[in-house]
Amino acid sequence: MTAEKLVVYNTLSRKKEIFEPIHAPNVGMYVCGPTVYGEGHLGHARSAITFDIIFRYLQHLKYRVRYVRNITDVGHLEHDADEGEDKIAKKAKLEKVEPMEIVQRYTEYYHDALRKLNVLPPSIEPSASGHIPEQIRMVEEILSSGFAYESEGSVYFDVEKFTTNGNKYGHLSGRILEDLISGTRSLDGQQSKKSSADFALWKLASPEHIMKWDSPWGQGFPGWHLECSAMSTKYLGETFDIHGGGMDLMFPHHECEIAQSAAANKKEPAKYWLHNNMITINGQKMGKSLGNFITLNELFSGKHALLEQAYSPMTIRFFTLQAHYRSTLDFSNDALKAANKAYRKIMNGMKMLNSLEYSNEAIEKDQALNSEINKIIDDCYKGMSDDFNTAITIASLFNLIKKINVFYLKQKSTALLTQETFENMKVSYHTLVTDVLGLIDEVPINPEGLIKGMLEIYKEAKENKQYDKVDQIRTYFKEQGLAIKDMKHGIDWAYEE
Predict the structure, then answer these.
(1) What is the H or E stretch that residue 379 is in?
(2) Three-state DSSP class for residue 205
(3) Chosen domain end from 243, 276, 309
(4) Torsion on CA atoms 415, 420, 421, 424, rounded to nearest 10
(5) Average pLDDT, whole number, for the chain?
(6) Which of 71, 84, 305, 419 has the fewest CB atoms inside 10 Å of its own CB, making it the most exposed?
(7) 3-state DSSP call for residue 197?
(8) Is residue 159 domain-shared with residue 235, that is, in the same domain?
(9) Closest to 376 measured CA to CA, from 2, 10, 52, 14
(10) Do 149 and 46 fall within a single domain?
(11) Which of 240, 258, 276 is where one domain is finished?
C-alpha cells in the first residue's frame, strides 16, 4: 500500500487539507441520518454509502473510528422550518397509528436497505427522542451564554446577537446574515421570533401536538438542529474530527449546529466538514412533487414507472461509487445498466485472481511488468487518499484487471512476477474491492430455473436409459437436501424429509 497522506476536502475552508485527527489514532465522525417518516430513497443511499466508504477507509488506515449516525424521530417540521407539523406525527395521523410505530417501521426499512447495500452499521445510532435531557441542558447553556431568548413558551437562537459578539454565522455555507434576513419570508405566523433569521431551539407544543416533553419552558419538543448538536457532543465530545451529511443539509441545518455548539461549548464542533453531493434523475432534481422520486425498494424490485428493470443492491452501490462523492450523480436506466456491467467486471476480476497460483518456474523476472503492476496498485490507493476518490480507484482497478487477465489466459506466466508483487496484487485487489469499496458477490442465480433445467436433463437421461447419469443427478440433488420425485404424470422435486 502507498504511503500517501490522506487528504480531505473541508467544506469549512473550501480546500483540501491533510487529515490530522485531534486525538490520533482515534477518530470521531458524526453523520446526519434520516428522518424516518418514509421509505429510504436514492439520496439516503448516496449519503450512507459515501460515509460507509469513509468509515471503511479510515479503519483500513488503522484509525480507531467512533462513527455516530443519528435517527431523527421528532422535531423535524415540514419544509425544514420552525412552523408546521412534525413530519413523523403527520404521517402517524394519516395512518392512525402511534408516531413511534412510524419510527419503528421506517427505521427497520432503512436498516434493511442498508444491509442489502452492504453498508456497515455505525458505532452508535442515537435517536433524538432518546436524548431529550441532553437537549434541554444544551438550551439552558445557550440561554446562559446570552445567545438565546424565551418567547411565548419557545426558545429561539438569537443569530444577530451571536454575530455582533464576534461569532461567525454563515461561513460554512457562504451565506451573509443581512441577505438571509432580507431574503427570508416575513414573520407571519412566527411573531414570537425577534428576527426571521433566528431558529428554534425548543418549541412550545400546541395541545394537539402528539410528541412533547416537560421542560423549564413548558411542554414542548426540541428544534431539529439542536438534536445533532446535543448527540454529537454527548458521544464525540465538544470538538471532534469529521461532521458529514448531504450538501442539502449545509444550510440551515449544519450552519445552525455550528452556532449552537459555539454558543453552548464555546467552540465549533468539527474540524473537518464533509458533504456528499445530490442525485439527479435524468438531469432533474429528485423530488416527490416531480414524480421522479424512487425508493430503494422500488429500485430493487423494478416497480416504478421510470425503471426499465430491477437493479440489484450491488449495482446501486457500484453506480454510487463510480462518481466522486462531491460530484452530482445523474440516475438513468442506461447509467445503471452500465454500472451493472462494470460491477460484474470487477467481480470477474476477483474470480480470475482467485484461480491464479504463483509459479516458481525458473525464469527471469520482468522488472517492467512488476513496476507497472505495483504502480497501478499505488494509483488505487492514491485515489482513496485523495479525498476518497472512488472513481479514480475503480478506474485503476480496471487497469489491474487487464494484467490479471493476461495471467488468467496464460498469455504470461506468474513466474515473471516476484512473489512480493504477486501477493501485493492478490491482497490489494481483495482488500480494495471487499473491505474498502464494500462490494460483495451477488450470484445472479434463479434456483427454480436451475432445478427445472436439471430435471429436464434427468428426464432425458432416464428416457435414454443413461442410468449412471440418472444416479449422478439424484446424488447432486441429495447433497443439496432435495429429492427427485418420479410420478406417473411427470417428474418434480421436493425437499428431502
Answers:
(1) helix 367-385
(2) coil
(3) 276
(4) 130
(5) 93
(6) 305
(7) coil
(8) yes
(9) 2
(10) yes
(11) 276
CATH number at residue 66: 3.40.50.620
- Same domain as 218, residue 87: yes
Same domain, 343 and 478: no
Whole-model pTM? 0.91
Please indicate, yes or no, if residue 355 is contained in any of the structural domains: yes
Instruction: Tell me the three cell numbers of residue 479.
Output: 447433497
How far apart (Å, rounded) are the C-alpha atoms in residues 253 and 443? 41
pLDDT band at 190 (very low <50, low <70, confident <90, very high): low
Cα Dmax for the chain:
94
pLDDT digits (tens, 9 = 90+) for 114-144: 999 999 999 999 999 999 999 999 999 999 9
User: How many H helices and E strands in the chain?
Assistant: 16, 15
Q: Do 390 and 466 have their domain in common?
A: no
Total domains in the chain come to: 3
Find, among 249, 228, 203, 173, the residue nearest to 77 by Cα: 203
In this prediction, residue 178 has a pLDDT band, given cuts at 50, 70 and 90, of: confident
Asked if residue 466 has pLDDT above 90, the reply is: yes
**Distances, alpha carbon 267 to alpha carbons 5, 28, 149, 245, 262, in Å:** 27, 16, 20, 20, 4
Cβ contacts of 390 within 8 Å, gap of 6 or more:
53, 321, 322, 323, 324, 325, 383, 384, 437
Assess if residue 6 is contained within a domain: no
Is the domain of 488 the same as that of 385? Answer: no
**Judgement on whether residues 475 and 396 belong to the same structural domain of the protein:** no
CA dist 359 → 96, 351, 405, 410, 417 (Å): 68, 18, 16, 11, 9
| DSSP per-residue codes, 280-308 | EETTEE--GGGT---BHHHHHHT-STT-S
Alpha helices in 127-170 (DSSP H): 132-145, 159-164
Comparing 132-136, 149-153, 156-160, 192-196, which segment has the lowest mean pLDDT? 192-196
Residue 74's contacts (CB-CB under 8 Å, 6 or more residues apart) are: 86, 88, 99, 128, 129, 211, 221, 222, 227
Task: Indicate which CATH number applies to the domain containing 353.
Answer: 1.10.730
Question: What is each CA distance from 94 to 87, 88, 89, in whole angstroms?
Answer: 11, 10, 9
**Domain hosting residue 131, numbered range:** 22-276
Contact 243, 254 (CB under 8 A): yes
Cell 447419469 identifies what position? Answer: 469
